[in-house]
Amino acid sequence: MAVELNHTIVLAGDQDAEAAFVADVLGLPAPTRYGPFTVVAVANGVSLDFMTSGETTAQHYAFLISEREFDEVAARLAAGGVVTWADPWHRRPGHNTDHGGRGMYFDSPSGHVLEVLTAPYA
């Protein structure tokens, strides 16, 4: 049997705002509701299921995207005034070319560290 990730629950201060931010920045379809969750369909049947929680611990979510999509995400982040970083520690502003592609990090409204990259790590 092949094992595939189907969904993961993402805790957020405001699940609707968090889901809308992620869907908008990544250029994904608008979030939908499923039970108590606000759902963002990512790709290949995988979804991020957002749930409001009084306690959230910052997590890291990385998304592999194309070069064209990278430019689109960067433009949406810049238009929204979202600061981007070349590293997950937020020490170098902008983006990186460290792994044979481009990558950048940015924070979600709930403080999760999101990453977009154009080439998988070796």
TrEMBL record:
InterPro entries: Glyas_Bleomycin-R_OHBP_Dase, Glyas_Fos-R_dOase_dom, VOC_core. This is VOC family protein. The lineage of its organism: Bacteria, Bacillati, Actinomycetota, Actinomycetes, Pseudonocardiales. It holds the Pfam family Glyoxalase. SUPFAM superfamilies: Glyoxalase/Bleomycin resistance protein/Dihydroxybiphenyl dioxygenase. CDD domains: ChaP_like (cd08351). Residues 4-119 form the VOC domain.
